[in-house]
Amino acid sequence: MGLVVATSRPMRRFAILAAAILSAAPAFAQDLGGQDLTTKAAAVRDKALADPTAWRVVESLTTEVGPRPVGSPAMARARDWAVATLMALGFENVHVEPFTTRVWTRGEEAAEIVGPAPQKLQIIGLGNSAPTPTGGLAAAIAVFPTFQAMLDQPPGALKGKIAVVTQKMPRTQDGSSNGAIGVQRFQGPLEAARRGAVGYLVRSLSTDKTRLPHAGASTPAGIPAAALSGPDAEQLERLAARGGPVTVRLVLSSSVQPAAPAWTVVGEIKGSARPNEVVLLGGHLDSWDPGTGAIDDGAGVAIATGAAHVAIAAGRPRRTIRVVMWGSEEQTGSGAAYAVAHKAEIPGIVVAGESDLGAGRIWRVSLPARGAATPAMAAFKAAAAPLGVIFADAPPKYPGADLEETTAAGAPFVQFSQDASHYFDWHHSADDTLDKIKPDELAQDVAVWASFLYVVANSDVDFRKP
Amino acid sequence: MGLVVATSRPMRRFAILAAAILSAAPAFAQDLGGQDLTTKAAAVRDKALADPTAWRVVESLTTEVGPRPVGSPAMARARDWAVATLMALGFENVHVEPFTTRVWTRGEEAAEIVGPAPQKLQIIGLGNSAPTPTGGLAAAIAVFPTFQAMLDQPPGALKGKIAVVTQKMPRTQDGSSNGAIGVQRFQGPLEAARRGAVGYLVRSLSTDKTRLPHAGASTPAGIPAAALSGPDAEQLERLAARGGPVTVRLVLSSSVQPAAPAWTVVGEIKGSARPNEVVLLGGHLDSWDPGTGAIDDGAGVAIATGAAHVAIAAGRPRRTIRVVMWGSEEQTGSGAAYAVAHKAEIPGIVVAGESDLGAGRIWRVSLPARGAATPAMAAFKAAAAPLGVIFADAPPKYPGADLEETTAAGAPFVQFSQDASHYFDWHHSADDTLDKIKPDELAQDVAVWASFLYVVANSDVDFRKP
């Protein structure tokens, strides 16, 4: 894998646009390793709370690029935007890491109740859905109030039917309802097909009440599969409860690229004392197509960029701070590509994090056991606690999708939990737009991460196994 | 205009469905005119609070018929549903009043930003929009933060442009922001065309933050015209603020029926003492197409039907109580048709009301000056006040769109103001669905109207000019 610095004309256009984002590029100060970390971390936190960089980054990305699914022309524009943005902010070693990945792309989509009460349904195809036959697919539905109720059906029980699972996602602060019922989207098409279904509809993994359905990936199952909006799922429940047959017609088209070009974009500030020790923070640049990828994951890209920007504004750090904008989270691919490309340097990663749960406030921080009880982390905790952060007494459980392979290969990771109470109102839907981000909450995220990056990069704290 | 009792096969199907709605049809009691109205009105109120009829009616209409724009096959199904529902509830003289009206019907619709940041826009065509040329219309936009800013442009200033007005609707309890800025939808296309624009986009008359645009009528202007979702309007504002040209492409198709068949459905209970004196309450049966017409105006149909059902359950009233389900409010037509057809009997209308502001609680009641200070209205006030209702010290200002002509011809009217704080979150959008109605709020509406109908129909109160 080569490192490619993009120099296309669109990139230069973004470089000009990105100039508007720019606060002054950092003036590198002297080694700060011996100074009072607690005082310095608090100063970084306060600077971050007032720094507009993260907001400007997410405003720029969602406005000037918009939706950017992997494999689309927009993702190439996002790559150029990322390079221009990182360069304008003074990052070093800004480069593009190309890879290829399998890509599913949505085509025409429609659904309607044919009878007994003809009306349109609001759906969105699931990633890896099979297309319907030309002219669409009409079949009677079989409605299940829970995913388990469908799993309880014997083989062949859904023969010729469109299976419909209407289980509702509950609202949770930590987003754990996604893990708890996400299987109805991921595995639903496959389990329906195994029982003979010719199509699959699932109530969106959503906590809102709008008619906007929520997209997302699913395991390839060879049948058409789509998500319904909540009110549409309830409409099918009501009609089915009347006892007669309910027929639904689906039109879903899509295409697959087995090895589409994709790109992860990286920028860093080299450490003054230990340049090969890396503090890594990222988000993912790609998004689903219906919204503009503001909370998923323009916010993460902005938080990582903004936090690093503030952390290095105080002076060149002792260790390297690296910002990573992964290029294919929604359909997988970039995490594995990153781990393979950086295999040799994984032992140098002091700690890694991914911000990929929206733009709500960080309410809980979980640190690896080794390193958590050091003076450096005491300085971080002193900076973060006034921001309303609590510190978990359990080690971090999940690094983020793009870090799975890198952390499996040994890199330590932190988990900074954002308040996800409203995240699934908008996630993967057309409603994932800039107006859903509250600037003060975004600034709190940046402040927590910036003080963490600062402390780790300017101390000897080590989370790695000895 | 003849009165036609529908007897089609679909109607009989709905009659069977409607049987499920049915509480017992009323057993007619003796003339109650001399009894204690205050006690009786309170009893009617309490019965209404527990009566499921209104909820069942709106659940049935929105589920079994769904969206029902005038001129569509669904509106014919709604007509049959209405007849079956009123008959199942024991109303007398259930009949259909046919008329014809001009109908605009939506076809294919799409919009996108062509440059500088290609992405789709969420729009919905305005009623009476002209279609775009085959292949669509692409033009630079001119963005105005207020409607007045567009009006301030001289003739020709918008030549070749798509005018965009992004003024946001504020949230109001009484819904008055619709009157205050509704002109940007109604008259916007015409005013844009007068200044040379080739197309018109308006921020939806909406108080929500979703990507669902809100439909609605506009004055024919000969140019394509559509509403943007709020986030899409803000996206165009941000791109335009960057200073370069922003090009938008519109595809809008539609068709017009100059004289489409339409129907108003009526049921009543004849008064025992004064059958020619009519207490009239209605809502409108038609809806816009994107939602299922739950709050606009399935709720009004349900409130009128449910309130009359409870008011007559106590016994046959002295005056006639009439329920009217008007058949073309959204594109106008049914109010004028009703006034013409019933011209001779308008002097017999003791009072009229239309419930057409959703399903929120009634918070204010406005009565005509004549009749307001009678013992009968004291009985009504005593029943309604515990429901959280205040009584306006000004006479009613607006009877509802379908009563404009009838009240202009002399019929007195009341205005029961519902809390519209959330009405414009969903109004005319795909989000106008059953889940937006809170059963306890709907029951409060029914209780206020039922006690009013009961008191007026069983007393000698008169709001008519002598």
Fold-level CATH name of the largest domain in chain A: Aminopeptidase
- Reported CATH architecture of the largest domain in chain A: 3-Layer(aba) Sandwich
* Uncertain stretches of chain A: 1-12, 15-20, 22-34
Main pleated-sheet profile of chain A: 11 strands, mixed
Span from first to last CA of chain A? 30 Å
Q: Can you write the helix and strand succession of chain A as a string?
A: HHHHEEEEHEHHHEEHEEHEHEEHHEHEHH
Oligomeric state of shown chains: homodimer
What is the assigned CATH homologous superfamily of the largest domain in chain A? Zn peptidases
Q: Any idea of the CATH class of the largest domain in chain A?
A: Alpha Beta
Number of E-state strands of chain A: 14
Amount of helix of chain A: 25-40%
Query: What is the C-alpha radius of gyration of chain A, as a whole number of Å?
Result: 23 Å
- Beta fraction of chain A: 15-25%
Gross morphology of chain A is elongated
By secondary-structure content and strand pairing, the structural class of chain A works out as alpha/beta
Q: Provide a count of the helices of chain A.
A: 16
Mean pLDDT of chain A: 93
Task: Name the chain pair with the biggest interface and residue counts per chain.
Answer: A-B, 38 and 38 residues
